[in-house]
Amino acid sequence: MGNSESGTSVTFAKPLHVAVLMGGWANERPVSLTSGAGVADALESRGHRVTRIDMGRDVALRLAEAKPDVVFNALHGVPGEDGTVQGMLDLMGLPYTHSGLATSVIAIDKQLTKHALVPHGIPMPGGRIVTREELYERDPLPRPYVLKPVNEGSSVGVAIVTADSNVGNPISPAAKGPWQEFAELLAEPFIKGRELTAAVLDGPDGPRALGVTELVVANGFYDYENKYTAGRTEHIFPAKLPPAITALCEAYAVKAHQVLGCHGTSRTDFRWDEEAGEDGLFVLETNTQPGMTPLSLVPEQAAGCGIPYADLVELLVAEALRVHAAKQAKGGGHDAADPA
């Protein structure tokens, strides 16, 4: 089996059998089901055979029975994004889209991501891990500050604690918030300013940034509901930014992609305090499995660069096959071809 890439499209020697993993049991299950359905429809529109798998505990058996040429990982959150599924696919010898085991383990963990990126000159907010018991005793940081789960995506469980937050001071165990769901949380200083994001896509010439989107939320901040509810958030692409800030966002996104060893695509999120200029730009996190829904940012940025949705899906499949071939040549795992 072979393929040849030209520009923003890819041509395969013959139609592929692609297993699309979606659903699962994470908080982001509904998003994953929508991503997976879109991916499967796109592949079928290009003549590929698709096996849709709503992941359960029998996923390895179902994949062994399906015998696909490649797996499109459309899962979000744990265990599809944290290295668990990646390790299983490595053991099964199956090519798969997006990042490998080691990258996934690091990038899903916001604290590990800081340890990986900050030494490479990528600015990220400070902060520390706190237990819910600590929160009930005292604030870990001066208000306002942000609390977020260490290893969840899609802004699941994020809370901004301000001086006038209706949660008590210190936070009350009875107050609604992520402390009721998670035993540990990452506390970070709140960075005022604008919400930005930049996608990166791998290609024949290496990773490239697709541009920068500004996210303008009607009410509150860019949380799970605002991300996936139509009309809640305005996407401005390309973002109306000073050229230097656009260039810096793109450079940091590509650097994060390379340092973490991402494959296929990634999306890096930022906060920018424009009053501080370049010093006010901070990376919040890098998402190794960005959504592929109608409201998702990577397909939107790709379309803005002239890459239709179905082309994007096929490009990710082609990259999965390239990485798998490189892995076999080197005799290592899925991360063996990482540039970093």
Question: Your description of this structure?
Answer:
- By secondary structure, the chain is of the alpha+beta class.
- The chain folds into 3 domains: 3-97, Rossmann fold; 107-123 and 192-304, ATP-grasp fold, B domain (D-amino Acid Aminotransferase, Chain A, domain 1); 128-189, Dna Ligase, domain 1.
- Helices cover 32% and strands 23% of the residues.
- It has helices at residues 29-45, 59-66, 84-92, 101-108, 110-117, 132-137, 224-228, 243-260, 297-304, 309-330; strands spanning 3-6, 9-12, 17-22, 49-54, 70-73, 128-131, 145-148, 159-161, 184-189, 194-201, 208-217, 233-236, 265-272, 281-287.
- Strand 3, helix 1 and strand 4 (49-54) form a beta-alpha-beta unit.
- Helix 1 packs across helix 10.
- The longest helix has 22 residues, at 309-330.
- The radius of gyration is 20 Å and the shape is globular.
- The relative contact order is 0.16.
- Residues 1-6 and 336-340 have low confidence and may be disordered.
The average pLDDT score comes to: 91
| Strand order across the largest sheet | 12-11-10-13-14
CATH class of the largest domain: Alpha Beta
Globally, the shape reads: globular
CATH superfamily of the largest domain: ATP-grasp fold, B domain
Number of E strands: 14
State the CATH topology of the largest domain: D-amino Acid Aminotransferase, Chain A, domain 1
Low-confidence stretches: 1-6, 336-340
Determine the fraction of residues in helical runs and give it as a percent range. 25-40%
- Count of helical stretches: 10
Based on helices, strands and strand pairing, what is the structural class?
A: alpha+beta
The number of domains: 3
Q: Separation of termini?
A: 28 Å
* Gyration radius from CA atoms, angstroms: 20 Å
- Which CATH architecture of the largest domain? 2-Layer Sandwich
Share of residues in strands: 15-25%
The biggest sheet, with number of strands, parallel, antiparallel or mixed sense and barrel status, is: 5 strands, antiparallel
User: Element order, helices and strands?
Assistant: EEEHEHEHHHEHEEEEEHEHEEHH
